[in-house]
Amino acid sequence: xxxxxxxxxxxxxxxxxxxxxxxxxxxxxxxxxxxxxxxxxxxxxxxxxxxxxxxxxxxxxxxxxxxxxxxxxxxxxxxxxxxxxxxxxxxxxxxxxxxxxxxxxxxxxxxxxxxxxxxxxxxxxxxxxxxxxxxxxxxxxxxxxxxxxxxxxxxxxxxxxxxxxxxxxxxxxxxxxxx
Length: 179
Known about the structure:
- The chain has 4 helices and 6 strands.
- By secondary structure, it is α/β, with parallel strands linked by helices.
- It has a 6-stranded mixed beta sheet.
- Strand 5 (117-134) and strand 6 form a beta hairpin.
């Protein structure tokens, strides 16, 4: 019974640490988003990005896909310039399960009386920023941010990047109720 209880607590902590992507956005309330129909990538900004070229391609492809679903097209003379930024940090979670002496599930001596069990897990938390810049004014008009846990699994990486980008760009353009 104690093993089942211990396993249940461990699984709860494991599931809690695998949270979904959190998304935030901010925008210029004076910008007229209906005028933006074309876009291009801000080459100088993207070239400075310190991630693998394959991941850059995955992110840019996902942005192309999501913006095309919104009716936008790539152009040599764009209304918007798109820049991306990334950052990551290592997260360490320490969880401790202490069982004690006394009444509860079962009365009696507990082998974990003097310390319980400690579980340590690490994960990489990544943040993707997507900046939309008015090409004529050279001003930032919208910024989306997605925060979530990254995987090293190559098979899931593209799916994860697509999910990050899709969730961020769900908030573009801002709805009239947000203005």
